[in-house]
Amino acid sequence: xxxxxxxxxxxSSTFTCGxxxxxxxHKHLVNLVNDMHCHITGNEKEEREYFNGxxxxxxxxxxxxxxxxxxxxxxxxxxxxxxxxxxxxxFISTFEKxxxxxxxxxxxxxxSFTQSLKNWVLSHIxxxxxxxxxxxxxxxxxxTKDKSDVISVA
Length: 154
Ligand code: FEO
Hints:
- This protein is mostly helical.
- The protein has one domain: Four Helix Bundle (Hemerythrin (Met), subunit A) (Up-down Bundle), CATH 1.20.120.50.
- Helix content is 77%, strand content 0%.
- Helix 1 packs antiparallel against helix 2 and helix 1 runs antiparallel to helix 4 (110-153).
- The structure holds MU-OXO-diiron.
């Protein structure tokens, strides 16, 4: 069971929102999942060494990404903000529980962990994030129209 050089997730244009910062962060998250997938060996000692070496940084990155999105949603007065933030908070709680369980001796299966992460990342980007992407696109379209109205009046 070795998945070296096998991508678990292939980035697709269906994941893009058009905001470079968010798209870059999502790509980075996809790369994190793919990197984890490449380190599945089925040998718990090896997997634990890898996991311990990357998980803190991964957690920090995920928090930065969530904060970035939440700030954008607040700035854009997005009505689904509270629900979206709840999904982020629930993910962080689950993520922290996994880490606590593994650090207190629960058997680590990098395969299972990576699959859970993949399922969450994909469903969140493809469904929950897309809802606010739509809201942002409407704002950008409105601002572009307002600008062109001003230009045509002048
Ligand atoms: Fe891209 Fe809502 O996380």
